[in-house]
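Example 3.2
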Amino acid sequence: PDNLMPYVAQVAAGRRKLLRVFGGDYPTRDGTAVRDYLHVMDTVEAHRVALDHLADMPGLHVFNLGVGRGSSVLDVVAAYGHAAGREVPYEIVGRRPGDVAELVADASAAGRAWGWRPTRDLADMCRDSWRFQQLNPQGYAGSARHPSGKR
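Structure, written as tokens:
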């Protein structure tokens, strides 16, 4: 996977030996990249609220979504390890080209326009991701069949 959360989940579940952390020399608190992680259910809720406001906001509008706080890669590793009840092994390797030190969203426009705010934090994301991993050890490949009988 290209995204951190499923990669950490696979390492915690033992499907991968260790997590490769790209860059340990960023100008951040612990040297790893910082991102604004948003729980998928907060994203779903933001989309629902946006649909509720279509009629009173005609035209095209662009909104950033996020929690407004960054978590480093090592913050995610620690939070996931706590949720899983086990250490998540990792190694720090070189940076990837194009990665920046820190990206944090400003979702205040969504708050002003819709009254939307995220309600879940990094611990919730890790706990829910670990629960999904435990219930679906093969990820989406092993999840429920489509009503047509196909996967």
